[in-house]
From TrEMBL:
<dbReference type="InterPro" id="IPR036388">
    <property type="entry name" value="WH-like_DNA-bd_sf"/>
</dbReference>
<feature type="modified residue" description="4-aspartylphosphate">
    <location>
        <position position="53"/>
    </location>
</feature>
<keyword id="KW-0805">Transcription regulation</keyword>
<dbReference type="InterPro" id="IPR001867">
    <property type="entry name" value="OmpR/PhoB-type_DNA-bd"/>
</dbReference>
<feature type="domain" description="Response regulatory">
    <location>
        <begin position="4"/>
        <end position="118"/>
    </location>
</feature>
<dbReference type="InterPro" id="IPR011006">
    <property type="entry name" value="CheY-like_superfamily"/>
</dbReference>
<feature type="DNA-binding region" description="OmpR/PhoB-type">
    <location>
        <begin position="135"/>
        <end position="234"/>
    </location>
</feature>
<dbReference type="Pfam" id="PF00486">
    <property type="entry name" value="Trans_reg_C"/>
</dbReference>
<dbReference type="Pfam" id="PF00072">
    <property type="entry name" value="Response_reg"/>
</dbReference>
<keyword id="KW-0804">Transcription</keyword>
<feature type="domain" description="OmpR/PhoB-type">
    <location>
        <begin position="135"/>
        <end position="234"/>
    </location>
</feature>
<keyword id="KW-0238">DNA-binding</keyword>
<dbReference type="InterPro" id="IPR001789">
    <property type="entry name" value="Sig_transdc_resp-reg_receiver"/>
</dbReference>
<keyword id="KW-0902">Two-component regulatory system</keyword>
<keyword id="KW-0597">Phosphoprotein</keyword>
<dbReference type="InterPro" id="IPR016032">
    <property type="entry name" value="Sig_transdc_resp-reg_C-effctor"/>
</dbReference>
<dbReference type="InterPro" id="IPR039420">
    <property type="entry name" value="WalR-like"/>
</dbReference>
Amino acid sequence: MCANVIVAEDDEKQAELVRRYLEREGHAVTVVGDGLAALDEVRHGKPDLLVLDMMMPRADGLDVVRVLRAEHRELAVLMLTARATEDDLLLGLDLGADDYMTKPYSPRELMARVRTLLRRTNRPGQANPTTDAVDQVLSVGSLRVDPARHEISVDGTSVECTPGEFRILAAMAAEPDRVFSRQRLLEELHGFDRYIGDRTVDVHIMNLRKKIEPAPRKPARLLTVFGVGYKLTDPARSASRA
């Protein structure tokens, strides 16, 4: 099975190059040239992946991601940009992008990123290690993670997460109280990808705390283990131990 991919890129030569490489790998590709067209294609189709240029007419890539996540659309998003500062990278991830590449880039590296992202977000024709290994609902106190339905809830209230955030939380919920290093969580996000740094994990953790913690600045579930990484715990059980 192939994935359904939208390429949103206003540079026609660049868009054609990406389209050819994607089609070579068996994916169905739709190319659009501006941000509003990208939103329209996502809303009327069922894409698995959006390859999204940051700088586009009518609506830029950041605006597109912001709208898609506000509409709770869970497709994977890979952003492309000539702007290579760390602030740009973190802003894109904070808004809900799953991966980020700077121009110029190698088409072969882009395809490797696509394969990894599709595999990690459980898209057509790809295996999802978390879902394959765990088909039951994972519970850590009042936090529930359902890998099969890709659903998260806290105290019975549904929580919307990006695919990257879900991967992290599902991995940690499968082994509560285990300390996960940043490198271990990076492997959950991107496998062999060595181009995304530790700050990527920190941004996802920060966003997850906003969604699952009553007081994100004083986390009780998703804890920092200084100098090591992060762990997910049951606040009620931790309180009783104390």
